[in-house]
Every structure is written in C-alpha cells, then in structure tokens.
Design a protein that fits this description.
This protein is of the alpha+beta class. It is built from six helices and twelve strands. It has one domain.
C-alpha cells in the first residue's frame, strides 16, 4: 500500500457534509453512518466489556459450539495476496486476554471444555492466526475479540508448530483477515509448545488505518481463491 503523507497522530472527529472524519496515523478515513453508529454503541458498552475481559477473560459470558464459519482446505490461503503480504507460513499465534493467557501457559491451549470468546469458536477446535504482523493482531483483537472496544488489553502467544498434531483447515467468516486464520482440530496444545511474545491494547485508529486495504485483499481472496462462492460470502463485515 502506498504511504500517504504523514499527519499529526491523534484521534478526533469533525462534521463535514454530515459525515465524520476519523483522523488516523496516515490519512483521514471517512466513516459511514453504520460505522459511526457501531462505534458509538461499542463505546457505550465499553465498561462492561472491559470488566468481563479482566474478570472472566472474555468479552461476553457464553459457552458455544456454533458452527458459523465455512471451512475449506488449509493450503488455499497461501495463494492469496493477503497471505503473501501479511502471512507468516508455519508461524502460528493465539490472541487472548491477560487472564486466559496465564491459564493457557500453565494448562495448555484447549479446544474443548473452556469458555470461548467468540461464537465462531467451535468445541474441539483451536483458533490461531498465521501472521506475525502487529497490525493484523490489532485488527483481530479490536474487531473480532474486542468487538470494537478501544484500549482492551491483549496478549499474543506463539504456538510452536511441533505442538500441532490435529487437522488444520481454514475458514471463511466476516472478518477481513480471515485468509490468515487457521483452525486446528485438537483438544489441547501442551504448555511446552506455547510462549508469550507480545502485549498490546486495541486501537481504533489503527483499525481504521488498515480497513480499506484489508477489505480489498479479502475481496481478492473471495473472487479468485474461495472454492464455494455464494451470495452469503459477499457479506463482509470487516
């Protein structure tokens, strides 16, 4: 992506033709009305989400075995432009809350019998990101795990591929970076294969800084690589 001229790094809004500009690191992103509404809604529940995240390790209290994502062969994603730019083949990471990171480091990363943060998390499956890019980590942490809440503390755990013994597959979901997702059919990855590598707080301005590029890369994946296209695939939430 061609770099724009750098601007002062701060976050603010202003009214222009009934739209609001969100100043981010390198350019002005013009949010649409749906995005403005969603951001305001997330801000209203921010205190509740942060309390749940700190106290229970998840944004909302739920156990789930919902099968919401569409699965496809793992190797397809390696052909996508998104993976070629932001992927890290055979380097796997798991993003979680500080509370859950302590449990994972002592008990292992479990695919069953634990409270999962997202309804995309199916019983018996472990969710990983095959990317070592901090921008991707923030995007997933902010959008999928943090459900749009700014300033949520995240921990990144690196998973040694030697600890992965289950079937690997990819999924398609509304998340733009889904070509970087890896699902593992495995009950548990032992602690000896896991190490903490990074901490960060979710950033709304960094999320918007990269949203347009990731949208285009996700569209390229859908049009050129996804094996079972249908009208539902085009409903990309970001």
């Amino acid at each position: 992506m061609k770099k724009c001229k750098k601007r002062k790094q701060y976050l603010t809004t202003k009214n222009t033709h009934k739209q609001k500009h969100l100043k981010v690191l390198n350019y002005d992103y013009v949010r649409n009305e749906e995005e403005i509404y969603y951001d305001n809604k997330c801000d209203k529940i921010s205190s509740e989400v942060k309390y749940n995240w700190k106290t229970f390790g998840v944004t909302f209290l739920n156990y789930t075995t919902n099968d919401c994502g569409e699965k496809f062969p793992h190797n397809i994603k390696y052909q996508t432009k998104m993976f070629k730019k932001y992927g890290s083949k055979n380097k796997f990471y798991h993003i979680t809350s500080p509370l859950n990171s302590l449990k994972i480091l002592s008990e292992g990363l479990k695919g069953s019998g634990v409270r999962k943060n997202t309804t995309m998390g199916n019983d018996g499956e472990i969710y990983l990101i095959e990317s070592n890019n901090e921008m991707i980590w923030n995007y997933v942490g902010y959008s999928q795990l943090g459900i749009g809440v700014n300033g949520l503390e995240m921990v990144v755990l690196e998973i040694d591929s030697e600890g992965i013994i289950g079937e690997m597959f990819s999924e398609n979901c509304n998340d733009y970076p889904s070509p970087l997702h890896t699902m593992i059919k495995q009950k548990c990855i032992e602690p000896k294969w896991i190490k903490k590598v990074f901490e960060f707080k979710t950033s709304r301005k960094k999320y918007y800084e990269n949203k347009l590029e990731l949208h285009d890369l996700k569209l390229e994946y859908i049009l050129n690589h996804y094996p079972n296209r249908n009208e539902n695939i085009y409903k990309m939430a970001g």
